[in-house]
Amino acid sequence: MEKLHPIMFAGTGSDVGKSIIAAAFCRIFRQDGYHPAPFKAQNMALNSYATPEGLEIGRAQAVQAEAAGVPCHTDMNPLLLKPSSDHTSQVVLNGRPIGNRSAYEYFRVEGREELRHEVCSAFDRLASRYNPIVMEGAGSISEINLRDTDLVNLPMALHAGADVILVGDIDRGGVFASVYGSLMLLRPYERERIKGILINKFRGDIRLFESGVKMLEELCGIPVVGVVPYYKDIYIEEEDSLALATKSVQTEQGKVNIAVVLLRHLSNFTDFNVLERDPRVHLFYTNNVDELAKADIILLPGSKSTLADLHELRRNGVAQAVIRAHREGATVMGICGGYQIMGQEVCDPDHVEGEIERLPGLGLLPVSTHMTGEKITRQIKFRLSAAARENSHLFTDGMQANLEGYEIHMGTTVPVYDAPVSPLNLLEDGGADGYFLDRTCIGTYIHGILDNPSFIDFLLEPFADKIADAGKSFDYHQFKEEQYNKLADHVRSHVDLPLIYKILTTHD
Ligand SMILES: NC(=O)CC[C@H](N)C(=O)O
């Protein structure tokens, strides 16, 4: 295939839809016979993913890699900042944490050149393996006060020799000013790299915007390569928990009601995407104690800051509400940070997470957690333990499919001294995971465990009468493939693709 220049989707601001557009182009290039890969030098998100090598990257690049049909790799997102409070972030470089930095420390010029060297090297490695590289900028391209320390927008595009498409969001208004203003604030040699404008999230009749397109082109001297309508019926994983705001917060009659406890530092909320689409289930997010009381199943999600969130749960009464609901028959399951919260205690003597050194947990599981400096990041295959399967009718033939998931955590959790060893899962490598007390009380470190249809069946098995005539679970992998294709079709039919190919092959 012909070599294409790297293409970068940069924004007039954050949340203009860069990640999704980049995912769409990953799929489009793949459909057209190329071998694309995504790249974003630096990501700030709590939603991360483990690569096949057992290293950590931002979830958005993992999704884009899936759209591109290639395995994800840390070279696709060499720098990941995971905010742990308003002022500090854990810095993950090439998949491994290198410590916590305050925002001030981080943006100081010092040390930046080392990081720049790292992200540029990651890009170069990736560019030697894939064609084209579909790059994503971060936030706005015109944060002029941060220009000299920027690692992810124009300096990266210049290093890569990328053609930049500036994405503007027409839904929030002010698209002319934001596009024109962003361009004007760039230096001339930076502006030269902007080869197209893409208007995203358009609602209404596109014909009414035709004159607007002409005006923008005349004003900016850059072609508008597409006006992409807002879509509602395509499901692609969202980059950050902003999307949570649009989700359900209440119970619904006639389904298994599953409450996900809203934690302030909730991480990996994508753990619940499959359940959310399961016809047997009504999933909602809450920290309202009355709604929790009505749930059949309560899920405690992962948390970047387990101790801080546990403290908050005790303060706002949610901890007590979960304990009460469990006593009255609800199933409680914790994933990662949520699992740690369910135990007897969480200790952080070395201040890995922060100030708090120790807190009692909810006491639902006889385990105790210690935070350690070492971070575990890995993809794993596993199966349910014999104890977990004992009262289940799903695994009677002794055969059990391998389940898949991934781990990202600092804590280690063990049974308290007098408690029996009773893991929920047995790992392929011989290890064990989580704790199985009984069908109503379980914990696991495995993210993505609820992407496995047979695990969902296991979780819902005790509620069989409630869901007797609801539909069956569905194939998530096939669903995701369909969604990437739908997204690609949608974007393809609203951009001038021949023009984009021309841009990506024309020397300048
Ligand atoms: N992903 C998580 O839930 C992490 C839990 C906890 N903060 C840890 O690092 O161990």
From TrEMBL:
Biological pathway: Cofactor biosynthesis; adenosylcobalamin biosynthesis
Domain CobQ/CobB/MinD/ParA nucleotide binding span(s) in chain numbering: 7-235
PROSITE patterns according to UniProt: GATASE_COBBQ
Keywords in alphabetical order: Cobalamin biosynthesis, Glutamine amidotransferase
Protein's UniProt keywords contain Glycosyltransferase: no
InterPro entries: Class_I_gatase-like, CobQ/CobB/MinD/ParA_Nub-bd_dom, CobQ_GATase1, CobQ_N, CobQ_synth, GATase_3, P-loop_NTPase
Signal peptide segment: none
CobB/CobQ-like glutamine amidotransferase domain ranges (all copies): 257-454
Matches recorded under Pfam families: CbiA, GATase_3
Molecular function per GO: ABC-type vitamin B12 transporter activity; catalytic activity
Gene Ontology terms: biological process: cobalamin biosynthetic process
Active site: 336, 447
Described function: Catalyzes amidations at positions B, D, E, and G on adenosylcobyrinic A,C-diamide. NH(2) groups are provided by glutamine, and one molecule of ATP is hydrogenolyzed for each amidation.
HAMAP family: CobQ
Family: Belongs to the CobB/CobQ family. CobQ subfamily.
Protein known as: Cobyric acid synthase
The encoding gene: cobQ
